[in-house]
TrEMBL record:
<dbReference type="InterPro" id="IPR038765">
    <property type="entry name" value="Papain-like_cys_pep_sf"/>
</dbReference>
<dbReference type="GO" id="GO:0031410">
    <property type="term" value="C:cytoplasmic vesicle"/>
</dbReference>
<keyword id="KW-0813">Transport</keyword>
<dbReference type="GO" id="GO:0005829">
    <property type="term" value="C:cytosol"/>
</dbReference>
<dbReference type="GO" id="GO:0035973">
    <property type="term" value="P:aggrephagy"/>
</dbReference>
<keyword id="KW-0072">Autophagy</keyword>
<keyword id="KW-0963">Cytoplasm</keyword>
<dbReference type="GO" id="GO:0000423">
    <property type="term" value="P:mitophagy"/>
</dbReference>
<keyword id="KW-0653">Protein transport</keyword>
<dbReference type="GO" id="GO:0005739">
    <property type="term" value="C:mitochondrion"/>
</dbReference>
<keyword id="KW-0256">Endoplasmic reticulum</keyword>
<dbReference type="GO" id="GO:0019786">
    <property type="term" value="F:protein-phosphatidylethanolamide deconjugating activity"/>
</dbReference>
<dbReference type="GO" id="GO:0016485">
    <property type="term" value="P:protein processing"/>
</dbReference>
<dbReference type="InterPro" id="IPR046792">
    <property type="entry name" value="Peptidase_C54_cat"/>
</dbReference>
<dbReference type="InterPro" id="IPR046793">
    <property type="entry name" value="ATG4_LIR"/>
</dbReference>
<dbReference type="Pfam" id="PF03416">
    <property type="entry name" value="Peptidase_C54"/>
</dbReference>
<dbReference type="GO" id="GO:0005776">
    <property type="term" value="C:autophagosome"/>
</dbReference>
């Protein structure tokens, strides 16, 4: 059964504020104190782009659905994690949305990439139609891996952002593959596409120098998505500390996942609770006003975010990271290596320099759990279980 759909007005009275706790609040790599920085926490959360169910948008494919209520929650979560990558790319992690304040053009360029119409780069229309190639009919529920694969394909058309999108399968991140993908000689598509707040193209993290152009390849900003299965029917406790650490990294884009048939975009944690944005609110589709300006308030969650116990998380997730420069990627690798030394934290994935010889081509990996697991796999919320290897202690 699909979750009941609530309106924005009924929701706004049901959210608890943050608990009064000495535990730090982590939001996408930023650490806050509830006692001294509550306004900063809420401003950070509100500034994330919030994509929910919409109704009365142009029919998908011309004759398909005009609303994604009941089936589009994971697609919306995919939009949210990817929008965070575009915000970091074009506006920077420190950018904040303030109600009523005039925003820069790049903000509206990012937002327009997700608007519910067929010609937006990452619209529900594009995701649903591209998903057909992944074996998902329009209106069918997606899992984290499918939405990641679709977004990777759509990003190739987004020349403005010029992103390198890598999906690490088989619970393994191969550094050599990522460097090969990001060290491309394809130039940025104009100054607006170059890294946020920088006027110069970055060459391996360094400002452009004419003498370097011929010698150093351009580093395309990296969006790294890692689909994972962290247990069979529930999350294995051994992964919880590692999952928390992912939200502490400055490269964090958060996590998409949720409960069976109900996807959420997780942006942080406090104590033993995950903090998330919930797409299960149906709002009217938005169209530009008479002036051509896009009304944007409904794309920002202006109440305290939802929370849930980490133990309730479904084991099928995708973790995201953004590395704007090669230095960011090298730093991320160092943090992942240190994380393997933390007591009581079981690694969620492996980081290797080059692809192990026993691997097949990453593009054709099709890892199938043992058939003896089939009865236990039935209750999983996603039909794409065959894309994951079961992790065990």
């Amino acid at each position: 059964l699909f979750p009941a759909t609530l309106t924005y007005d009924t929701l706004r009275f049901e959210y608890e504020d943050f608990p009064e706790t000495k535990e730090p609040v982590w939001i996408l790599g930023r650490k806050y104190s509830v006692f001294t920085e509550k306004e900063e926490i809420l401003l950070d959360v509100t500034s994330r782009l919030w994509f929910t169910y919409r109704k009365n948008f142009p029919a998908i494919g011309g004759t398909g659905p005009t609303s994604d209520t009941g089936w589009g929650c994971m697609l919306r979560c995919g939009q949210m994690i990817f929008a965070q990558a575009l915000v970091c790319r074009h506006l920077g992690r420190d950018w904040r949305w303030i109600k009523g304040k005039r925003q820069m053009d790049n903000y509206f360029n990012v937002l327009n990439a997700f608007i519910d119409k067929k010609d937006s780069y990452y619209s529900i229309h594009q995701i649903a139609q591209m998903g057909v190639g992944e074996g998902k009919s329009i209106g069918q529920w997606y899992g984290p891996n499918t939405v990641a694969q679709v977004l990777k394909k759509l990003a190739t058309f987004d020349t403005w952002s010029s992103l390198a999108v890598h999906i690490a399968m088989d619970n393994t991140v191969v550094m050599e593959e990522i460097r090969r993908l990001c060290q491309s000689n394809v130039p940025c598509a104009g100054a607006a596409a170059c890294p946020a707040l920088e006027s110069d193209v970055l060459y391996n993290g360094c400002p452009e120098d004419l003498g370097l152009r011929g010698r150093l390849p351009l580093w395309k900003p990296l969006v790294l998505l890692i689909p994972l299965r962290l247990g069979l029917t529930e999350i294995n406790e051994a992964y919880i500390e590692t999952l928390k650490h992912c939200f502490m990294m400055p490269q964090s884009l958060g996590v998409i996942g949720g409960k069976p048939n109900s996807a959420h975009y997780f942006i942080g944690y406090v104590g033993e609770e995950l903090i998330y944005l919930d797409p299960h609110t149906t709002q009217p589709a938005v169209e530009p006003g008479d002036s051509g300006c896009l009304p944007d308030e409904s794309f920002h969650c202006q109440h305290p975010p939802c929370r849930m116990s980490i133990a309730e998380l479904d084991p099928s997730i995708a973790v995201g990271f953004f590395c704007n420069t090669e230095a960011d990627f090298n730093d991320w690798c160092q943090q992942i290596k240190k994380l393997s030394l933390v007591r009581g934290a079981l690694p969620m994935f492996e980081l290797v320099e080059r692809q192990p010889s026993h691997f097949s081509n990453p593009d054709v990996l099709n890892l199938t759990p043992d058939s003896s697991d089939a009865d236990r796999l039935e209750r999983f919320f996603d039909s794409e279980d065959e894309d994951f290897e079961i992790l065990s202690l």
